[in-house]
Structures are given as structure tokens and as C-alpha cells.
Amino acid sequence: MSEHQPVPKPADHGLDSDVEDLAQAVADQVESFLLAVREIAASGDSARAVPLLLLEVSQLLFAGARLGVQIDFVPSEKYEPDAGPDPDLDRMREALAELLGHVDEYTEVFDPYEESPELVASLISDDVSAIAGSVAHGLRHHRAGRVLEALWWWQFSYVASWGAEASGALRALQSVVAHDRLDSDTERTLEMERVAVAEAVARAEG
Questions:
Q1: What does the pLDDT average to over 74-87?
Q2: pTM of the complete model
């Protein structure tokens, strides 16, 4: 069990309605993300995997941003209650890796504020699976009625891990979509220019 900071803790009962509404909104988004990612992995549709993952990761990041602007949530218990076993996400991760193929691996700056920023290699499939594991942990607390515990976990893990993982994966996914659209547009434009030149030459010779 992990120990929280020894700060006075309010009880979960009698929470402010705004806090309960935020917790429910995050829980709904987490459930939607987990369901969608599993469906994407099981679909076998590589053509739609990237745009759908882009949508789901961006929506989850919105929920994370809402947590990031809140004051630190403090759980009502000193030690984290057992949330149950972590889900087995290996099959989902492997299925995503197969769907993504050569676009799975990408390079990002680990910390842009370091004096000498370090480039690191990452995998979208690993990132998405790690994110799923992190947010699912908080969801189990929420389902057990431990609202503050869930909010604390989601907020802490957003800042410590899955926020950065989601941001990196989002940038990579957006880049894939951009290359797909812009590169094809460029090729189409070049082809149209070639056709126009050929027609002009044909008219001149005629």
C-alpha cells in the first residue's frame, strides 16, 4: 500500500456537489476511454486506429486538464485502500502495436525545460496501455464509493505519469494524421501540375 502525505483529510461523505460532479465526469470519461481503446484494439481496423486513438486520447487529456487546475485532492484515509487487481492489458497492447505497425514508435523530448533536452523513443501502444492501467486504478476506487481517493489518484497520476504519456502519444498521433493528409495533398497537387504541363505541351505542339 502507498502512504499519502500526512495532511488533515476530509471524509468522503458530505462532499461538495462540484467535487462529486467533477469525479463523475472524470469517471465517465475514463470508462469511455477504456471501452473505446479495447474496441479499437479488437477491431483489427488499422485504417481507423490512428484517428480514433487521437480522438480518445485528446478527450481523456481534457479530463486530465480539469484535474490539473484543481487544488490538490486529499484522500480521507492515510493509506490507500486496496483497489483490487490491475487489469491484464498485454493483449490490448500487443493488438494496438500490430494495428499501428511502423507508426507505433515515435521520438519525443523527455523534458523540454531541461538544459539539454533528451530525446527518447516511445511506443504509442505502450503509452496508451499504461494510461489505461493508471486511469482504471482510479476508476475502481470511484466505483467503490471512495470519491476523494479516486480524485487523488487520477490527479496525482496525471501529473506524475499519464498526462505526459498522453501528451506524447497525442502529438505522435496528430503527426501521423497530418502527414497522411498533407503528404497526399502535396502528391495530388504535383500530379495535377504534371497533367497541366503535359496538356500545355500537347496544345503547343498541336
A1: 79
A2: 0.79
